[in-house]
Specification:
Blueprint lengths: L5 H16 L19 E6 L5 E6 L6 E3 L5 H4 L9 H15 L3 E2 L3 H8 L35 E2 L3 E2 L6 E3 L5 E2 L28 E2 L3 E2 L3
Parallel strand pairs: 7-9
Antiparallel strand pairs: 1-2, 2-3, 4-10, 5-6, 7-8
Length: 211
């Protein structure tokens, strides 16, 4: 082999080594495919006693969901059971009455559309890969978290982990802090609880219908 041909072999090998070294880890959700560059619109719904609930408009849809699960200070405005599906429906109806807006629970289809953030068939709110919860996700905990989890996609918090979230159909989505099985984090997974279920690991994410 002629000495001057060595650089021709070294360059491809060096390129392969660099590609392997800088290859992103699948479990790091920040390195996965991101949604299209779209404008994210946030609006605050005024509630009684100076409270407000912030909603995010999902691009290319008629969906506007609350940015995070409804916090306890908002739930406390309504005197009634809110952990069950019936209680969640009553709460959404009450919010509609006091605000004059159409507020309801999202359907499973609407919930998944927002969670997938414009990436068709995304397996998790962070994209694809093994069901390994990203750092900071409220999952497999011994007690309820005190703060919202990390932001994903369009800016929603706790669409994975946190609290199981009620849907119109009476099924729960998103997994919860109390779960241990990472299979529950798949966006295709849904929890069909027994009638009247009202665990402390369940919560509400509201949908505000756009005009």
């Amino acid at each position: 082999m002629k000495p001057r041909s060595l650089p021709l072999l070294i360059l491809p090998i060096l390129g392969i080594l660099l590609a392997l070294f800088f290859r992103p880890l699948e479990r790091n959700w920040e390195t996965l495919e991101k949604p299209l560059n779209v404008q994210i619109i946030k609006r605050t719904l005024a509630l009684p006693h100076g409270h407000g609930l912030r909603f995010i408009t999902v691009p290319n849809s008629n969906v506007r969901l609350s940015e995070a699960e409804v916090p306890q200070r908002i739930l406390n405005l309504y005197e009634g059971e809110t952990a069950s599906h019936q209680g969640a429906l009553h709460f959404a109806h009450w919010i509609s009455e006091v605000t004059g807006e159409t507020i309801r629970l999202p359907s499973i289809k609407e919930w998944r559309f927002a969670a997938r953030r414009g990436i068709p068939n995304a397996e998790f709110v962070w994209g694809f890969g093994p069901p390994t919860p990203p750092k900071g996700l409220h999952f497999a905990l011994s007690s309820p978290p005190k703060k919202p989890g990390p932001t994903f996609g369009y800016g929603f918090r706790d669409m994975a982990g946190g609290l199981w979230e009620w849907t119109e159909e009476g099924l729960l989505m998103g997994s919860a802090w109390s779960e241990r099985d990472p299979q529950t984090l798949y966006l295709t997974h849904r929890f069909d609880p027994p009638e009247g279920y009202a665990g402390r690991d369940t919560g509400i994410r509201l949908l505000w219908e756009k005009e």
